[in-house]
Amino acid sequence: MESVRHFQRWFVALLYIALVPAALSAQGSSQPEPFLLPPPLLPLQPQPSSAQSRVQSLYSGSTTPVTASGILPVSAEIVQPPLVPPAASDNLTQVTWNHENIYSDSDPYYESDYEPYFEDEFSECDEFANESWLPFGLEWTKHRLTTTVLPGSDDGLGITTVDFRTQFSLKQFPMVQVTPRFRWHSLDGPDFTDLPSRIFEHAVDFTLFLPFNEQWSFYGGLAPGLYSDHDNNSSDAFRLTGQALFFYKYSEQLKLAFGFVYLDREDVTALPVAGVTYVPAGMPDLKFDIMFPKPRISYRYSNDGIRERSIYLSGEFGGGTWAIERASGVDDVATYGDLKLALGIEHKQTNGLTWFLEGGYVFSRDLEYSSGANFDIDDTGMIRVGLTR
Questions:
Q1: pLDDT by residue (tens digit) across 276-320?
Q2: Which pTM value belongs to this model?
Q3: Helix (H) and strand (E) counts for the chain?
Q4: What average pLDDT does this structure show over 181-190?
Q5: Is 221 a member of any domain?
Q6: What is the pLDDT of residues 359-369, one digit of tens each?
Q7: DSSP 66
Q8: For residue 51, which of 25, 185, 287, 348 sits 20 to 30 Å off, Cα-Cα?
């Protein structure tokens, strides 16, 4: 017990030595920190400085700095701003994360309209945006339909693709996105390719956007899915894709990105992602997304504050891997790959419909089977149209 008393005495003495000089120094300071007066809800009444300081710590309305020593004489001379009644709860605007100024495309590999999956606010016309019956705090935020046509020929492979996806966000964590998607491919090609007439993709994307500070941010996700012709439902149909991308905002004109995308394809398992987004100073309508392997250069030629239109030139690494059943009844895995170069036009409308239309050239096409057969496919053209709501 005696040792405890000695410890207490020493502790009190140390506190006294540390706090008393600081208090004396603060008392002798001739320039206390300025603070702001609140707008009075009642007629001004003289208040002691301690009470005034307490009120100031809870509110901030006036923009005129006043020192503690002059509260009472100065407060009566301040012109207070008019009081604004609080808005009704029905008029409040719900805001989610907006990352368009940080990166230009959340997924460099999916056929997309190059629009990030984040918006400033929910569309006023979207009847599903704030539906309360959705479980787990989910909110419907975006829907997208894309159709791509690659014409076939006697020696070429024709592919018509319909892609539909709808996006949900978590109300409490808007940086988390859940996107179920379905893609249907209709194949029209020569008999020697031995491909089924239809193949399908069912997947769910789970993505996370994580800003570290004003310069650094992270975008990543995983997407488990089934890729098959619905006849070969073996374990080869399951594939897990993902991505991890880091973004650095060097300036308002220049942003850097690096990371990787995991494709889980038979020919290409993963690819690095690296590049820059550059908007020249004095030319805000011109944008360079030099991002391997999906570069894009766009020019916005019309913008009235509600609608804007752009033209763009883009490149794309396409293809995929599917579990199929050959004509002989044997299960196999087919992998198709190509490169695309497209010229398009894009229309965006605030709280409205976004659409794009593009045409291009498809080359470096090939088809591989895990059983060992490989084919070179003739080049072809491309037409793609997409709608986003």
A1: 999 999 999 999 999 988 999 999 999 998 899 999 999 999 999
A2: 0.67
A3: 3, 17
A4: 92
A5: yes
A6: 999 999 999 99
A7: E
A8: 25
Residue 91 is assigned to a structural domain of this protein: no
Omega of the bond prior to 180 within 30 degrees of 0, cis? no
The CATH number that applies at residue 378 is 2.40.160.40
* pLDDT tens sequence across 221-277: 999 999 999 999 999 999 999 999 999 999 999 999 999 999 999 999 999 999 999
C-alpha 359: how far from chain center: 26
Average pLDDT, the chain: 76
* Beta carbons of 195 and 118 less than 8 angstroms apart: no
Q: Which residues of 272-296 are buried (b: 16+ CB within 10 A; e: fewer)?
A: ebebebbbeeeeeeebbbebebbeb
Return the ∠ at Cα 242 (arms to 238 and 248), rounded to 5°: 175
Whether residue 273 sits in one domain with residue 146: yes
Cα dihedral angle (254, 260, 263, 266), rounded to 10 degrees? 130
For residue 193, give the 3-state DSSP assignment. Answer: helix
Residue 44 lies in a domain: yes
Assess whether 188 and 336 both reside in one domain.
yes
In degrees and rounded to multiples of 5, residue 15 shows phi and psi of -60, -40
Structure-token pair, residue 332: 């196999």
Strand partners, 222: 206, 242
pLDDT at 184 over 60: yes
- Backbone phi, then psi, for 193, in 5-degree steps? -75, -25
Instruction: With beta carbons less than 8 A apart as the criterion, state whether 271 and 259 touch.
Output: no
What's the pLDDT band for 136 if we cut at 50, 70, 90?
low
In the chain, the number of structural domains is 2
Q: Are 295 and 274 in contact (CB under 8 A)?
A: no
Instruction: Report CA dihedral (33, 39, 41, 47) to the nearest 10 degrees.
Output: 30
Q: Which residues contact 314 (CB under 8 A, 6 or more apart)?
A: 114, 294, 295, 296, 297, 341, 342, 344, 358
User: What mean pLDDT comes out for the span 143-152?
Assistant: 95
Note whether 200 and 54 are same-domain residues. no
Closest listed residue to residue 385, CA positions, set 109, 148, 164, 111: 148
The pair of three-digit structure tokens given for residue 183, joined into one six-digit string: 């893609």
Residue 319 lies in a domain: yes
Q: Are 209 and 244 in contact (CB under 8 A)?
A: no
